[in-house]
Amino acid sequence: MDLKTTYMGIDIKNPLVASPSPLSHTLKQIQELAASGVGAIVMHSLFEEQLTEDEDYRASIIESHSESFAESLSYFPESALAATGPTEYLELLKAATSIVDIPIIGSLNGSAIGNWTSYAKKIQTAGASGIELNLYCPIGNLEITSQELEQLHFDIFTSVKREVDIPVAVKLSPTYTSLANTVKRFDLLGADAIVILNRYIYPDIDLDTLEVISNVNLSTKNEIKLPLAIITSLRHYIKADIAATGGVETAVEVIKYLLAGANVVMTTSAILKNGYTYVGKILAELDIWLTSRGCSNLDEIRGTLSHDQNNNYYRSSYVSALRKANQNPYGWSNN
Amino acid sequence: MKITIDGNEAAASVAYRLNELCAIYPITPSSPMAELADEWSTQGKRNIYGTLPKVIEMQSEGGAAGALHGILQGGALGTTFTSSQGLLLMIPDIYKIVGELTSAVIHVAARSIATSALSIFGDHADVMAVRQSGIAMLSSASVQEAHDFAAIAQAATLKSRIPFMHFFDGFRTSHELNTIDFIEDEILRQLLPIELLYQHRKRSLNPNHPVLRGTSQNPDVFFQTREAVNTYYAKTPQIVQNAMDDFAKLTNRAYHTVDFFGDPEAEKIIIAMGSSTETISATVKYLNAHSEKTAVLAIHLYRPFPAEEVIAALPLTTKRIAVLDRTKEPGSLGEPLLLDIEATLRKDSAKNKFPVQPLVSGGRYGLSSKEFTPGMVKAIFEEMSRPEAKREFTIGINDNISFFSLPYEKGLNTTPEGTVEAIFFGVGSDGTVGANKNTIKILGSLDYYAQGYFVYDSKKSGSQTASHLRFGKSPISAPYLIEKASFIGCHQFNLIESKEVLDRAADSATLLLNSIYPKDEVWDKLSPRTRNLIIEKNISVYVINATQIARDLGLGSRINIILQTSFFAISHIIDPATAKEKIAESIIKTYSKRGQKVVDANLAAIDRALDGLSKLDVEKVSITPLHEKEKIEIDGSDFIGNVISKLIAGEGEEIPVSLLPADGTWPTGTAKLEKRNISDIVAEWNPDLCIQCGNCSFVCPHSVIRAKYYPDQDLIDAPGKFKHAPLIERGIPDMSYSLQIYVEDCTGCGLCVEACPATSPLNPNIKAINLAEKESFLEQEKTNINFFERLDYPDRRKIDFGTVRGMQYLEPLFEFSGACAGCGETPYLKLLSQLFGDRAIIANATGCSSIYGGNLPTTPWTSNKFGRGPAWSNSLFEDNAEFGLGIRLAVDQQSDIAKQHLEELANELGTDFVSEIINARQESESEIELQRLRIAELNQKLQSIDSVIARDLESVSEALLAKSVWIVGGDGWAYDIGFGGLDHVLASGRNVNILVLDTEVYSNTGGQMSKSTPTGAVAKFASSGKKLEKKDLPLQAISYGNVYVAKIAMGADKKQTLIAFREAEAYPGPSLIICYSHCIAHGIDMRLGLEQQYNAVASGYWPLFRYDPLLQAKGERPFLLDSPRKRIPFKKYALQEIRYSSLKRSNPQESERLLKIAEDDIERKWQSYEEMSLKPATAYSTMDGKV
Lengths: 335, 1187
What we know:
Radius of gyration of chain B: 32 Å
Distance between the termini of chain A: 25 Å
Order of helices and strands of chain A: EEEHEHHHEHEHEHEEEHEHEHHH
Structural class of chain A: alpha/beta
Strand content of chain B: 15-25%
Shape of chain A: globular
Strand content of chain A: 5-15%
Number of strands of chain A: 12
Oligomer: heterodimer
Helix content of chain B: 25-40%
Structural class of chain B: alpha/beta
Low-confidence stretches of chain B: 626-632
Low-confidence stretches of chain A: 328-335
């Protein structure tokens, strides 16, 4: 089965892409990810760690006691102090691109204020095949209007796009006032791909301690519904490629996203939950599903269940053919 | 390639690349070598053979040497790094490694050996203590040599089979940053052909060609065997020289086993070893340029001693030789190098060369990193010119007893023309040292040579730092502090008044002053002395309010980048644009690990610094008479005035020999003299809200919160603003209560505020004790303290020892220590001192507690108004349990002698009296007080008895008062290096109390893993998280049956802490208390230390329990579980701390795995403790422990 696909103009051996996650923090992990069979890897975001922890506080604790006393100029091994900064990130990226034979996509997180364009350029220089720009809509900001927020994101995208020659994808949150219009405008601005959708880390409340806590949960297959609906609706109307992300637990979700029109499908949770070998299982099942329906490549199914202007299934004739072939020989759940 | 590194890194960089295994144990100042090796190993850096070297941390240096011996016998290339006592602990294995002709290099940052006092600083006492072992000794004098000789030593050991000790001066070289030429891997490969490795491997133990080593020999052959090694030693000097020659071909850096420098026709020659030879060489160059004929002979190979090379190197013109030793061997004919040179000159070849023997004198210098300067070298040469020159001398001190010391002048500058000399004064927390290290690296990366040396004081909180930096276009060989700097950075405004700051300024120097005052007010804020010095020395003054800029940018106290930028802007060493770019680069490199926000704030600091810098118009008109700096007014003995106050004022260098105690005995009660005022924010008491619970006073690590109650009428003389409230205590009417904060000693740690349960009903942010800016009430509080001190502490016999509330009225005999602000250890020591201090003897293991407990200038241990208080001593790190046991044995022996004499004198003293005094119960304060009265009565009675026995009894009568012997130390001691001794003492059955201040890491030496380090925590040598479980020391102790054991955490249960201390002390056998001690090495905001203690207990990680053999004897359940089942997940506790959370960031999966294991262990252990708590007395040993 030919699982080859292109994403943002990059040739990829299969449509399963590792999304930004703790699994790309070390060279060893990146090598293992590549060996697992994924088509490409999106690195963790350059600034994502900084978003989730109070860096100032941490730094002040580490720094305030160092270089003060002759016998103990520091208290922690340097290597343990998390190599998450730009220098280490770029070094890791550089090392990864020279070692693994699949495309590595760098990731920039767009809600932090920083020296955008220079980092984008450095990511390109480090050998990334593309950049994923993660645009985050902060919840609870009372001061910014929807228009201002959108404009800020367009500006960030434009400044990055202008600086680099490699393709740039934007990863969007579901909370834009008019998501479809926002996607359209990114498309017009030249986005090479739209990544749908960003997941929020929602706070929770601990009833024992009456404290607000932050939990990072792995995504579940129920979460496929919103991105699936969006991709199904928009596929036909934008030039940019689409990456689907969120809710992939098995090959079933991958196939659904492809049918909706995604060029590639991203996952982390499935690998975190089941280990690296699970990638091979998903790909094998995808292969079987396609074979059983007489397909020889992904293009034959991609976007077949997206909507056209009349809100009908695009390529409906092909869909009916598929339906006939769908004997569901393996008894897969279809929900 | 040029790089700028310190001596430790220079040596370790080579040692790591030439070895396969490192077995180490941390000890200052060598620890960074081992830590770097471990870092490189973690990063996957390979050695020149393509192998990934591995590092193993052992339980002691003795263990490291044993492991090294095995590593070598196993056929691997191995090394270790050590200093001082560490090297001494290696001696037995060194003899073995030497005896078996095993190739290895041990790298030593040479350091003083503890004698009458410990010192972490550098001299040759340690390496000289190994010179008899047969190990070859190669001495480096500089950072470059530490790098080069590490390689040469390795080549020589592999070729000669004699193991080598490569050493350099601790701190002076080990911690000096300098620009050196780096040796690339390829050079090392050429220097050390792979065949040498193969030969080494062939000599290993291998069952395929088995041999026997380590035999036991008899008189028939042992002697001959020892003589069989002679040929190896005979060849070694030439092998070393050959290695040096090979090295020179590869690097163009030529060395010799002994290096002569100076006039080829020199008449006066100094022979020395180590960094001093750099100073002597520079001075020789200077003197010879001024028509002198001087020279220096630097000894590089010290063992086997290259006598013929020494003779050959000395010019025929030699008339006088001064041999300098950086060590002291009391009672010897002379120090070691002197004796070697004397013997060398008696060899036939020397006699043939010198028909008239040169006159040799021997001098001691530089002990414990005492400065050795060009002025001193000049003085030695001048002394050699005198016909009656001293044959034995010292330099650098004023010896007014033996009169060995030579006078010398300060200020002789021998650095090359164009060398910039700058000194920066700061405090530990402001980042001054870090910024200067960075400046050196920046300049070193350009076409500059740079040198940096950093001086720290002995305090762990509010410590002062001085950074001495030199830059120039040629290599810098000046291993001594800058005496006259052309640039002075004063990074804290209050430091400008320290004598040292402007005294070290050269004429026309530039001063950069961080001022919290606006530019137009600065001049008025300076003292007349400072103003006059600025004018007299024509100093240009630049001011900047870096403190405010740092606050604005959210950088807290880290003003480093602002002042670094200012330095470059004023000094014009490099062009401003390059400086800006380089600082920005270094910010990204340094701070990117800390986060983007931190990077951005520091980048912003560059621009803010340039905007905020301005030059002061020095008002030359306002010259006022010169005033000397006010001396600290101290009441007390001459010793306090002549010695302690000088130490406090930073004038210890001026103290002559006669004033110092020869046996290391110092007075206690001196920390109170310092009044360090290290925090602007201090605790402030609110009497209206206070419920007088005593919590704040109980937890205060610095003993700055004192409580007294007293009759209301005592308030008649009170200052108007003296704070007081009616005493709440029931049954004691007409009494007032005062809580006094010693504001000048408070560190502002805030633990008291966290511990205070009383909150204002109107504002939950206001408690009965709060932190406040002290400026507005400082003077008032000083008056209040004076009055408060005149009030008596309540009678101890009336205090309820069973409550935390009662504890606040007991006078602490441990106060105002220089421990870290918010220290988790010191509250336990303070409690010990309150409960038992007036009859306690403390044996203190080396570590944090011995440093804040006994590092000069002062000690926090003190005495009460009767002059009674803890008698304290530190023996060593490894022997503390045994040391304390010895004290117990001696006290018991004296008590036994006294009792025997009492019985012998029963007729004279009265049988009832004798029986009473011998059998007196001494458990309560009243009983102890009664016994004191009996002893006083006894001494009175003895005066009228004229007999030898009476005199003997007089000398031991005080032993009749029950002494409380405490053995105190940290987990590095108790779990690792001292464990063998601790275990033995527990098994001795003797009445000692062992207090383990458990920080779960080697805190004093900078956070290395101990066997107490918990699963999943990161530490040095466990950078990927500790994989194994923390040793259950209490459980091991319980297994003896007769040991009282308590596991406590003050922040979780103060009452249990108090009970444990009292039970442990009362128990007549060995007691062990393990105290949870939060620590800066945990990576927490220290203000939250008590909360973390609570969380540790709430998570079940640190269960509180007591095992009391007395209960067992009574048939009751002896194991008492004092804390409830876990209430919060372990993660919730652990991830508050950087030691755990950093692993979550760097390796989330491993963190998750280890935290899960830890959580499971908590559950498993809890079940086991719970079972123990339910078991009846019969399930435990019936060992009563009576000995």
